[in-house]
Amino acid sequence: MATTPAPTESKSRPPGTCSVLRDIAFLRLWAGTTASGLATWALPFVLGLAVLQRELGAPGLGLVLAARTAGFLAAVAVGGVLADRHSRRAVVLWSALAAAAAAPLLAVGLGRSLLLMTAAAALAGAGQGACRPAFQALTAEVVDPGRRQQANAATTLAVRSSTLAGPALTALLAAFVDVATLLLGIGLLWLVAALLPGRGGPAAAGAPGSPRPQRASLRAEFVDGIREARRHPWFLAGLGALTAVIALGYSATSVALPLISRDRYATEWVLAAAMTAYTVGALGGALATARFRPSSQGWAAFAGLAAYGFAPLSLVFPVHPAVVIGAYAVAGIGIELFNVPWFTATQREVAPDKLARVSSLDFLVSYGLAPVGLALIAPAIDTFGVTGVLGACAAACFLVPAAAALAPTARHFGRPPVRHTA
């Protein structure tokens, strides 16, 4: 039976000799990743504008977004296998082109054919799902190990900035162009994501000129990726904690915050201010992680993830709105104190030829269970009351990451850092 190769490190320039923001190869990848993130965020917002303009009904919006989620979940696992089996750059190209092709189909179907829009949304979700693990693995090929945390922080910073400025920019554009044109603009963003990134480093599968090994089935290779993930206790523990926070904490606040903003504070501005504070906090967290190197990085990351518990906790009691807004800012900071080291550790610790599959497992589990949480939270609130549900979700956000931090190798997200002596 073949053994899993140990993670290899890039042979590019020594770590720390040059900022990653001066690396042309990374900047191209960064721009492509940012374009894909902006396109991913923009689609539900633009479709929401279509509802406001009565070009799409609310049930139709739910169906289209559900189709996009289904397409994402169906493609993310396949995309991870393909990105480990073939060129990661090629997977990014074809998956982003598929998402780009979906945009004009959405525009044509708007107000005419809900069936066409649903199929196009599934195609867009599939393109998004297939390119996510490929982008993660391509970062490990383009950027040397010493600068990957800075690279991941820069990518997160760009995506969060787009999320913060995007609604205002899109609303401004909507005053001059129709929704169909905005959908075509999303397609252009996907074209940028497809065409701009350059090639990565040498493939991890083997030396040039070596015979191509006989490939197993897609299912067998995905299962092999699961085996690789099981080799890393810190990864399994972190994935469990992240899934719990998303499925319970994030889902609870997504449902409860609008209700509490309306019923307790009698205004929508608490909802808007809290969500803005969360994004601003995430920007601050991304900036901090670009240089933040705690000695126990895993424990620090789990503490950041647990900080999301302050968001549902702030909604339990009738506190001043400033407390809610501050809690969301802390949650935003904490989520990026987890995300950036998490992505960096995965790129460092996982075998290079299985990195995309392990990344796809990350997205599949954490994103896949989020709709389940959203579907169950509202009935739970009706049955047990908003205070009880929010209190339980806050407790889970605090306790599950704390338990995950006790897993073997969780303290450093893998092997301890090497200390160089003079």
Give a brief description.
The protein is mainly α.
Q: Please, what is the average pLDDT?
A: 85
The profile of the biggest β sheet is: none
**Termini gap:** 42 Å
Q: Helix content range of the residues, please?
A: over 70%
Number of strands: 0
Silhouette: globular
Report what the structure shows:
The protein is mainly alpha-helical and 422 residues long. It contains 14 helices and no strands. The chain has helices at 24-52, 58-85, 88-109, 114-142, 148-174, 179-195, 218-230, 233-263, 269-289, 297-306, 310-314, 321-349, 355-384, 386-404. Helix 1 (24-52) packs antiparallel against helix 6, helix 2 packs across helix 7 (218-230) and helix 8 (233-263) runs parallel beside helix 10. The longest helix is centred in the middle third of the chain and has 31 residues, at 233-263. Mean pLDDT is 85; it is low at 1-16 and 203-212.
